Amino acid sequence: MKKDSLCSQGQPVPESIPEGEMPTINTPLQVMPTKRLLQAFTSLRHRNFRLYWFGQLISLMGTWMQATGQSWLVLELTHSAVQLGLVGALQFLPVLLFSLFGGVFADRWLKRSVLLVTQTAAMLQAFVLWLLIATGTIQLWHIYVLAILLGITSCLDQPTRSAFVIELAGREDLPNAVALNSSLMNLARIVGPGLGGIIIAISGVAMLFLLNALSFLAVIVALALIRTHELFAQPLEDRTNRRQNTQNTWQSLREGLDYVWKTPAVVLVIVVVGLVLLFGANFSVVLPLFATDVLHAGATGFGFLSAAMGVGSLVSALWLAWSNRRPTIRGILLGTLIFSVLEAFFALSHIYLLSLVLIASVGGVETIFAAMATTMLQAIAPDHLRGRVISVYILFFTGSIPPGYLLAGWLSASYGAPIGLLICILFSLIVTGAGWTWRKPAENDLANASHL
Q1: Domain end: 235, 262, 296, which one?
Q2: Are residues 303 and 407 in the same domain?
């Protein structure tokens, strides 16, 4: 290499270069990999989001540990699968019934304050469970009551938590922030149950609930340290005036539902994604049947299938965070189409390794289109209606779980797991096709939104 060619790049060159050595030149090629890797974490540059994200990292691990511990506790007390389902239903029922009202209050009150209350309430619920177990006074009705109370807390917590993301990270980094939150959920879903099982084996189920109660301190402290003047939100005066102008809860609820109904992009995303999840995302309930009856892999094979689905979701969430892509109607519909096709291949597969790859891909694509839908709804909704819009999507997305499980179970019992799943997939494809046919008004609505 010539001296003058190096000097033209501004690099100092020694009089002589030892044989076998070359000078180090800081070219863009050396910087690019690091920069591209850091793209996955751009929303963490905001102090408020960074605090909240790391607080959630600890708290969600504890939440999934408690889910494992609660199931184990119910089995210890009753040895009944029916009671397991009943406790889960009791915890879910309030979310289905009252989440719309949670969205109303999320729009009326400061979200940071609401989350401080809901997270503290959840911490107390876990602490009471630990206390009852530690003192040997735990009874089944205690679990029923505490599950209902936790569900009531979730009615307010879920829409508030979802609507708070844009205030923490802003519109520019919203896709990245939603994807990072999704990656956090999937990481906790993979690691939390495993940790819970280890803790139960070593210390018993009581210690697990105590650790979960303590884990809430991380997110409570993070919320307390958030600087409200750095939030990306409307001024407090505007919010106060709007709250005063709202006459009552029912009128606020009607205002939110009217907005959803009259906004084509919001209606299309909620209805299409909600129905695809209703028909297509119920495969987890029949996964044990595929592992045993179709793939003949037994309990170990079922465990690896479940883990593969979680790993696929986590990888996709990290990819979304890295790409930081703006969601589009076509992108969401394409995601639901690919999801349905991959799931059909899984239903037809009798090769275990192929099924393992397919189920990981199914979990990954589901995470992609669901996160894109969440990002789009948060970006479209105006500040004063965001909580109510999010509550409608929670009602549709979460509300699709119980009937979807019942449908998949009934079809699998009647026609076998592969045929039952293929029937559900057919419905998903019909919904996706209808969404593609009616996408134009939604795309025009999205194009006219000045804040996107």
Answers
A1: 235
A2: yes
Residue % of the chain over a pLDDT of 90: 33
Are 211 and 165 in a shared domain?
A: yes
Which tokens belong to 51? 């605090």
**How much is the pLDDT for 67?**
80
72 and 138 Cβ atoms separated by less than 8 Å: no
Same domain flag for 424 and 333:
yes
Q: Which domain holds residue 421?
A: 249-452
- Residue 156 shares a structural domain with residue 90: yes
Assess whether 271 and 417 both reside in one domain: yes
Task: Single out the residue in 179, 207, 235 at which a domain terminates.
Answer: 235
CA 333 from chain center: how many Å? 19
pTM flag (> 0.85)? no
The total number of structural domains that make up the chain: 2
pLDDT digits (tens, 9 = 90+) for 70-116: 878 887 888 775 676 678 778 777 877 888 888 888 888 899 999 99
Together in a domain, 175 and 94: yes
* CB-count burial class (<10 Å; 0-12, 13-18, 19+) for 263: buried
Q: CATH code at 217?
A: 1.20.1250.20
CB 70 within 8 A of CB 206: no
Q: Are residues 255 and 367 in the same domain?
A: yes
> What value does the mean pLDDT of the chain take?
82
**Is 150 in contact with 98 (CB distance < 8 Å)?**
no
